[in-house]
């Protein structure tokens, strides 16, 4: 043997190493190598000296290059032959190594059978580490083989040939993993279950197992790359299955003994725990499937139970628990839809109940009471949406839907669908009028306004009230009015407030004109004339913008010859009166007692207006009637009450009588109806003008789309408008439900 | 001869291209002339009196659907008014230039009114009836008049608007008299014919759809019928 030894290694070969084998003897070469490989595999911590290592390396090198020389001596034909020879020799070593690894792993596998649970994991991890470390060393040692024989084989596309390190992994997978992964995984799962049950476990073991499984994911097409296939199949899948089973069982037994609220807390805690678990020792890739599995077992499987509890929580106003439920159900697909439906129904019911409570007042219902009842419900549930439901837009929409429903269709509105905007506008009026207490409430108004379906109704009433506030100077502050207008503009658009703004402009112009007129008077009138001049203020208002019905003055206004108010000789009162009332009062400048007939004659007022105005005077005790207590009619006479007293110096007598108010409301509603008809008709004509021909149904749809920002038109109403336009011959019927436009 | 009839004579018989000589038309013109009320100032039209005589001669009762048949043929512009042009053209296209032949033709049509294959004939007569009844500048006809016409047009010998379970015509009249109470415009008139056809085709009213193009009144009628049926069923 010594004669075969290479001169530069033989003399220093350590005692336990045999001499260098003959370079063309495969058997001998392997026997020589095996000693080294064995040492690397089983006894690496003892170390290997450089000489031994170099000897092994050289033996491989010699073996792989030996055939070349032989082949060259055998004759000069065919490079392919030479290469074929080199193949054979490389292959022999490669196969010997495979045999070695197989038998090594068979031993490890046998030993593993003696262990279970954590001991098995410890063993598996220890063997894995030792084996893979050895694999790296061997890879280095065999690098000549890697670089030439292995590379060439792989280049030629030969299957199942790997570099030496990968070969180690392949063998492990075949000879070790295949037979043990199941018991290893069972141990892992038992360990995790222990932890889920509250015990402390050695995280690192699971982590090491995960890593080792991942390492075995070899890409068949490209051995330099790895995939997660092995990990997915042998770790993730059973892990998820066990998780599912665990939580299914746990939630079943937990639910049997605990309340739904308790269960939600438990589920919440479990979900947090599982997330933490990923971070501690699992692969980040498992997060999504793991959470999905948990969500299914913990939430989806119990979603009906949770949803049933939703109503209970709503009824008891358990905000925190509602929030918990929201967060849980938000995790599963379509989890919240049923909640939204129930929430909407609940809010609607609450709103209707609130209205029901105040509706007992009947026609005398105070706008304030009504609006506050509505606002309270809205505020309460908006708060809930913000705090418990994360202010989620879908819930906001459900809230809006519910509010829209109960604001527009409730007990109070049943008599006429437009009662809501009417009351709302009245309420706004009281807010903006002088001497109102709280100004801040108007902030809530816009919320409410956006719920109102019939914005056109609100607009009508609002503008009417605004006109009165401006004309009667009962508006509390210009700022408040302006800010309300800008809010309306925000909620309903520029068109909506255009006319309202024109009213303010008129007021401003009138104010300037009055000042100018007063200046002119003081410059041009002498003192006596000034004294006799009526102290008057004039408003010049554009008919188109003001929703006031200009009252035709009576045919005759008595000439204001002297000042009635001053004639009282006491602290002068200022009366705010209508034109009609002024006509009556001025009569008393010439006489202290005026008969009903005289008034009729002098003012030419019709009975209705005369009686109404007199009624106000009598009630305010400005006039006395004789005989006392008589109704205004022929044969009665009226005297100025010189004992008139009032707390205020400025007395507003221009107040609408109840019946008048009612009439006004009716008129307003009537105007609204008319306006709507015109609006719908003009929309229809506009659409048809541009389309010329259109299907009936389409036309109805388009009309609704165009108008719905102002109010929600009803289909029968639209049809009536179409009928009218057909009759007026703006439209004609064509074949097949189609309508045509007639220019 | 006065100038007017001369002009008519020229127009009808002598002007080339427009009208060629036509023995039927000559006969019809002669027939027309016979019934004129006021040949001097109104040479080309027959007024109420003349029309009554004419209808009598061709066996048409004034309270019978036959009146509408003949009115449609001669395209009379209003009830009891006939124009020469309509008279001559209408009858000549049917080749009937004697009262006897016209009488038999009307009888034939009367018998065709209820037949499904002659639905177009009924539709033409129906539509023309509105023109007949309308007194411009009004755009609609009084409900009372409309009801009379419907009763003539939709009962025997014409098409009967009723089905085994539903006396549609009676209900329609009742509904309009008690609920609708307005004049009938052309659209409603025309759409009523469609309604009649649908009701006869399917008395369960499955053809109705709230999004359909029916006039609002008909929608209301359908709802009214539904209620009425529901109510009656409850009584049973």
Automatic annotation (TrEMBL), chain A:
<protein>
    <submittedName>
        <fullName>Ubiquitin ligase (Cullin) of SCF</fullName>
    </submittedName>
</protein>
<keyword id="KW-0436">Ligase</keyword>
